Amino acid sequence: MTPIPGSSSFAPIADNVQMDVDSDSEAEQAAREFAQAQERLRIANEARERRREERKRLMEEEARRVAEREAEELLEMERQFQLQVSTGVLRNWTWY
Protein backbone atom coordinates (compact mmCIF):
# COMPACT_ATOMS: atom_id res chain seq x y z
CA MET A 1 0.00 0.00 0.00
CA THR A 2 1.29 3.33 -0.92
CA PRO A 3 0.92 6.49 1.07
CA ILE A 4 -0.94 9.43 -0.39
CA PRO A 5 1.51 12.02 -1.55
CA GLY A 6 1.93 14.74 1.00
CA SER A 7 0.60 12.54 3.78
CA SER A 8 2.86 11.35 6.53
CA SER A 9 0.61 8.46 7.50
CA PHE A 10 0.25 5.23 5.68
CA ALA A 11 -3.36 4.39 4.83
CA PRO A 12 -4.69 1.92 2.31
CA ILE A 13 -5.95 3.39 -0.92
CA ALA A 14 -8.42 2.00 -3.43
CA ASP A 15 -8.86 3.58 -6.83
CA ASN A 16 -6.80 6.53 -5.63
CA VAL A 17 -9.22 7.25 -2.76
CA GLN A 18 -7.87 7.09 0.74
CA MET A 19 -9.79 4.60 2.87
CA ASP A 20 -10.29 4.87 6.57
CA VAL A 21 -8.49 1.97 8.23
CA ASP A 22 -11.56 1.38 10.40
CA SER A 23 -13.94 1.31 7.43
CA ASP A 24 -13.49 -2.45 6.91
CA SER A 25 -14.26 -3.23 10.52
CA GLU A 26 -17.17 -0.78 10.48
CA ALA A 27 -18.51 -2.40 7.31
CA GLU A 28 -18.13 -5.83 8.86
CA GLN A 29 -19.93 -4.67 11.99
CA ALA A 30 -22.72 -3.13 9.91
CA ALA A 31 -23.01 -6.35 7.91
CA ARG A 32 -23.23 -8.39 11.15
CA GLU A 33 -25.88 -6.04 12.55
CA PHE A 34 -27.81 -6.23 9.30
CA ALA A 35 -27.67 -10.03 9.31
CA GLN A 36 -28.83 -10.07 12.94
CA ALA A 37 -31.69 -7.72 12.11
CA GLN A 38 -32.71 -9.95 9.21
CA GLU A 39 -32.67 -12.99 11.51
CA ARG A 40 -34.78 -11.19 14.13
CA LEU A 41 -37.24 -10.18 11.40
CA ARG A 42 -37.42 -13.77 10.11
CA ILE A 43 -38.07 -15.06 13.64
CA ALA A 44 -40.74 -12.40 14.24
CA ASN A 45 -42.44 -13.20 10.93
CA GLU A 46 -42.45 -16.93 11.72
CA ALA A 47 -43.94 -16.24 15.16
CA ARG A 48 -46.60 -14.00 13.61
CA GLU A 49 -47.47 -16.73 11.10
CA ARG A 50 -47.71 -19.34 13.87
CA ARG A 51 -50.06 -17.06 15.85
CA ARG A 52 -52.18 -16.47 12.75
CA GLU A 53 -52.43 -20.20 12.09
CA GLU A 54 -53.29 -20.88 15.74
CA ARG A 55 -56.04 -18.22 15.69
CA LYS A 56 -57.41 -19.74 12.49
CA ARG A 57 -57.37 -23.22 14.02
CA LEU A 58 -59.14 -21.99 17.16
CA MET A 59 -61.77 -20.18 15.12
CA GLU A 60 -62.40 -23.33 13.06
CA GLU A 61 -62.74 -25.39 16.25
CA GLU A 62 -65.19 -22.87 17.68
CA ALA A 63 -67.22 -22.91 14.46
CA ARG A 64 -67.35 -26.73 14.63
CA ARG A 65 -68.51 -26.61 18.26
CA VAL A 66 -71.21 -24.07 17.42
CA ALA A 67 -72.38 -26.17 14.46
CA GLU A 68 -72.48 -29.28 16.66
CA ARG A 69 -74.51 -27.45 19.33
CA GLU A 70 -76.92 -26.15 16.72
CA ALA A 71 -77.31 -29.63 15.22
CA GLU A 72 -77.98 -31.08 18.69
CA GLU A 73 -80.56 -28.34 19.39
CA LEU A 74 -82.27 -29.05 16.07
CA LEU A 75 -82.35 -32.77 16.84
CA GLU A 76 -83.84 -32.07 20.26
CA MET A 77 -86.46 -29.77 18.72
CA GLU A 78 -87.29 -32.51 16.20
CA ARG A 79 -87.59 -35.08 19.02
CA GLN A 80 -89.89 -32.74 20.94
CA PHE A 81 -91.99 -32.14 17.86
CA GLN A 82 -92.21 -35.85 17.16
CA LEU A 83 -93.20 -36.48 20.78
CA GLN A 84 -95.88 -33.80 20.62
CA VAL A 85 -97.21 -35.15 17.34
CA SER A 86 -97.26 -38.74 18.56
CA THR A 87 -98.82 -37.75 21.88
CA GLY A 88 -101.38 -35.58 20.10
CA VAL A 89 -102.22 -38.34 17.68
CA LEU A 90 -102.66 -40.83 20.51
CA ARG A 91 -104.91 -38.36 22.34
CA ASN A 92 -106.96 -37.89 19.20
CA TRP A 93 -107.36 -41.63 18.83
CA THR A 94 -108.49 -42.03 22.44
CA TRP A 95 -111.12 -39.26 22.09
CA TYR A 96 -113.11 -41.22 19.57
Question: What attributes does this structure have?
Answer:
mainly alpha; 1 helix; two-stranded antiparallel sheet
Descriptive report:
76% of the residues lie in helices and 4% in strands. The chain is mostly helical and 96 residues long. It has one domain (13-84). The model has no long low-confidence stretch (mean pLDDT 83).
What secondary-structure arrangement, pairings included, does this model have?
Layout (H helix, E strand, L loop, with lengths): L12 E2 L2 E2 L4 H73 L1
Antiparallel strand pairs: 1-2
Strand content: under 5%
Topology order in helix (H) and strand (E) letters: EEH
Question: Largest sheet, described in full?
Answer: 2 strands, antiparallel
Task: Indicate the radius of gyration in whole angstroms.
Answer: 39 Å
Number of E-type strands = 2
**Helix content, binned percent:** over 70%
Task: Please state the overall shape, judged from the principal axes of the Cα atoms.
Answer: rod-shaped
Count of individual domains: 1
Number of helices: 1
Average pLDDT value? 83
Structural class: mainly alpha
- Low-confidence segments, given as residue ranges, are none
Q: End-to-end distance, in Å?
A: 122 Å
How are the strands of the largest sheet arranged?
Answer: 1-2
